[in-house]
Amino acid sequence: MNDASPEYGERIVALEPLGTQTIPDRERHGRARDLFALWYSANAEIATWMVGLYIVALYGTDLRSAAIGIIVGNLAGYALLGRLSMRAPRDGVPQMVASQRAFGRSGNRAPAALAFLAGVGWFAVNSVFGAYALTTLTHWPFTTNLATLVLAQVALAMYGHNLIHAFQRAAVALLTAGFVAIAVATIARHPAATAFHADAPLAIGGAVAGFSFAVALSFSYATGWLPCAADYARYLPRETSRRALFWYSFLGSALPCIAIELLGALAASALGQRASAAQSPTDAIAALLGHGLIATIALATIVLGTLTANSMNLYSGALAALVATRIAVPRVAAALVVGGIGAAIAFFGSDPRVAAEGYSNFLLLLSYWTAPWAAVVLFARERDDPQRAMGIRAGTLAWMLGVLASLPFWNQAWYVGPVPRTIPALGDLSYEVGFIVAAAAVLVLQRNFSRATG
Questions:
Q1: pTM, rounded to two decimals
Q2: Which end of the chain is more exposed for a tag (fewer CB within 10 A), N or C?
Q3: pLDDT of residue 368
Q4: Burial of 247 (0-12, 13-18, 19+ CB in 10 A)
């Protein structure tokens, strides 16, 4: 943006003129506490509830283990989000641009491409869930409802940063009221069973594996936001408190996720076999709440949550696409392209069984690359280190090592590694292994490269 361009400032109904470039001081605005409402609304959605439901319904986790796993996974995942948000105002760039510090311009293209694909994937998943709910409410065809939701989400993402923040603030009270209604009805109508469900579709390895999967799924859901952690804090003034940035981002994300995932786990425990048979969120809502007023409120909450989450998925996916491709196109055009790709994928979600299976596997896939990537971004040197080994920056090599080290620990429908195949009770430990190996590798590689070139 040049000096002749009109100021964007705090205008809400205005197309955001900036894309991946650094935010100039004259455009800085907002407060750290704005991040609480933004992340709260982004996570107060049905996909979060489905995480808890799948932990019990698919993996058979007992309610106590599910609760502890959900808390552990969310605290760990969103602590990373808070840490990544802390330096956003100082850098003033999107998260996938900031990651160039550790990966270099060329090495950063692969993570940026994966962030773009994750944004498209989340956009498609949430759009399918929202379209199911809207179809139940309106009785219109699935494709009509999906197209309606896609257009609304694309409009939010096209206008950009300020409109997304304003929409998230406005949605907080409605989303809270909707999930409180679901919680009250769930607790009042259904006593929960607490034992491990050995006959669940993916119940392998017993109760210990169920706990491991609870941590993995909740952590994976949280790490899905890491590649866009800085996108919504980069407009804040440079002097914004780093402590405030951490806590508002962390609490705004962790609190709704823990509460809503626990509610989903409670619902699955209460429904028993009916939860395993539910092939879409609307199936689960109908089995849990019937078809009365509370069920209608729940479905409306699903639709609203789709808009709050997907406006951010689409916005950040477009920014990641610009970083990955380095094509000089306006951010608005990138949002349209990403929305079109996500919509095309979502149309295949009209089969609820495929959508349900794909969602749990998609969640696990997220941690396989994002956990090692986050480790590298967090532990790489503050300065842009030009040292290279074999033509690859230390950060890129460390990331690759983290991903490769996690491969034997993968455990999902698409691939079961040799470790969980041999010891099923371990569940899925890939994210822990990938993060630890990548963090250790980047610290060691940077130190050794510096000595070799010193």
A1: 0.91
A2: C
A3: 87
A4: middle
Q: Which two tokens stand for residue 285?
A: 């809502």
Q: How far apart are CA 237 and CA 167, in angstroms?
A: 21
Taking the domains of the chain in order of start, what are their residue ranges? 29-453
- Decide the pairing of beta strands 392-393 and 415-416: unpaired
Instruction: Tell me which fold the domain 29-453 belongs to.
Output: Hydantoin permease (1.10.4160)
* CB crowding 154-185: b at 16 or more within 10 Å, else e: bebbbbbbbbbbbbbeebbebbbebbebbbeb
Q: Which candidate, 26, 32, 22, 20, places its Cα nearest to that of 5?
A: 26
- The string of DSSP codes covering 251-306 is HHHHHHHHHHHHHHHHHHHHHTHHHHH--SHHHHHHHHHTTSHHHHHHHHHHHHHH
CA distance 8 to 92: 15
Tokens representing residue 370 in the block? 């994002």
What's the DSSP call for residue 389?
E
DSSP per-residue letters across 264-278: HHHHHHHHTHHHHH-
User: What pLDDT is attached to residue 231?
Assistant: 97
Residue 91 has pLDDT above 60, yes or no: yes
